[in-house]
Write a structure and sequence with these properties.
mainly alpha
């Protein structure tokens, strides 16, 4: 059940909270100014990185940097790129990319555990 939550539900909720909502709010507040994209990126990636830090779960700042900033930036640009294509939903495209990423990570770590490469 945890795997389903990580691969299916978390990407949908996180896409809404960390990408769709901040981008919509920043665009409504700032309009089409030159710094809007940067502020939207900060509003998306900052909380996404903080959420993935999870200090009490034993994760490190390096994990937050890699997962939060790198993946968060990729998902942010996925959202923006999909939004430029007519007929493509930026929300669902980003949620799908996030789900595929989480599923791949789960499979890789699962295989590493089964093969005894990671405990």
């Amino acid at each position: 059940m945890l795997a389903v939550a990580v691969v299916v539900f978390a990407p949908i909720v996180e896409t809404f909270l960390h990408f769709w909502l901040p981008i919509v709010v920043v665009r409504k507040v700032l309009g089409q100014r030159s710094g809007t994209s940067f502020v939207a990126w900060l509003a998306c990636v900052g909380p996404f990185a903080y959420e993935h830090y999870g200090g009490d779960l034993g994760r490190s700042a390096l994990t937050a940097l890699c997962t939060g900033l790198v993946s968060g930036s990729c998902f942010y640009f996925c959202f923006l790129t999909a939004g430029k294509n007519e007929g493509v939903s930026p929300f669902w495209t980003t949620a799908l990319c996030h789900a595929l990423f989480n599923g791949t990570v789960l499979v890789v770590f699962g295989l590493a555990y089964v093969l005894g490469l990671w405990s």
